[in-house]
Design a protein that fits this description.
By secondary structure, this protein is α/β, with parallel strands linked by helices. Helices cover 35% and strands 21% of the residues. The chain is built from six helices and seven strands. It has a seven-stranded mixed beta sheet with strand order 1-2-7-6-3-4-5, sandwiched between helices. α1 crosses α2 and α5 packs across α6. The relative contact order is 0.18.
Length: 195
């Protein structure tokens, strides 16, 4: 039992004390702003820690909050900072025996996007992981990412959030947009560029 005036401060302090590798939190999104799915505590933790954070909705009464993890979809935008999600996503895939689906959300240049995502997939495959790739062209929106997740049978969506500039990775509100558009849990890491 943790006590303190700010829940996120208490949780992050305790995570540091015990040497946590992952923070798992269920989020109701009841912080008063209905446009945000991720509640204020979960959002505060994601933005303030270098640890991967697994955010899930509570299940309906009598149901598990998450199902078996068979497919982990990893959202990449071509930036090095977005690739900081790869180690925790690969670890989750290894631990659960899941397939990784790499999604490159690209604005244009179809051939370069396909080459990029295959280059990222190669070392993961060499390490023994089952990896497939997918490229999404045009605007990378939360709904578009959720549609691809549904089409690929994803059980978890893994992504980074970046800083205020596009060069720092996926914009911070993207996690909220994705979670508003899907029932799936999200594995999220703050990108190194945003640290």
């Amino acid at each position: 039992v943790l006590e303190g005036p700010r829940v996120a401060d208490s949780l992050l302090s305790y995570a540091g004390e015990v040497g946590a590798d992952l923070v798992v939190i269920s989020s109701h999104g009841r912080s008063g702003m209905k446009r945000f799915w991720m509640g204020s505590v979960a959002r505060d933790i994601v933005r303030r820690t270098h640890l991967p954070v697994f955010v899930t909705r509570p299940g309906k009464e009598g149901e598990a909050a998450t199902s078996d993890i068979r497919n982990v979809m990893v959202v990449l935008d071509g930036s090095v900072s977005a690739e900081s999600i790869l180690p925790p996503a690969a670890e989750l895939a290894r631990a659960t025996g899941a397939r990784m689906v790499l999604l490159h959300a690209a604005a244009s240049m179809r051939d370069e996007a396909v080459d990029y995502i295959e280059d990222v997939a190669a070392p993961l495959r060499e390490s023994g992981l089952d990896v497939t790739t997918h490229a999404m062209f045009g605007s990378s929106t939360g709904r578009g990412i959720a549609r691809v997740a549904a089409g690929t049978g994803a059980d978890v969506i893994a992504m980074t959030i970046g800083g205020r500039r596009a060069a720092q990775g996926l914009r911070p509100k993207m996690a909220d947009e994705v979670l508003r558009a899907t029932e799936l849990p999200l594995l999220v890491v703050r990108s190194y560029a945003a640290a």
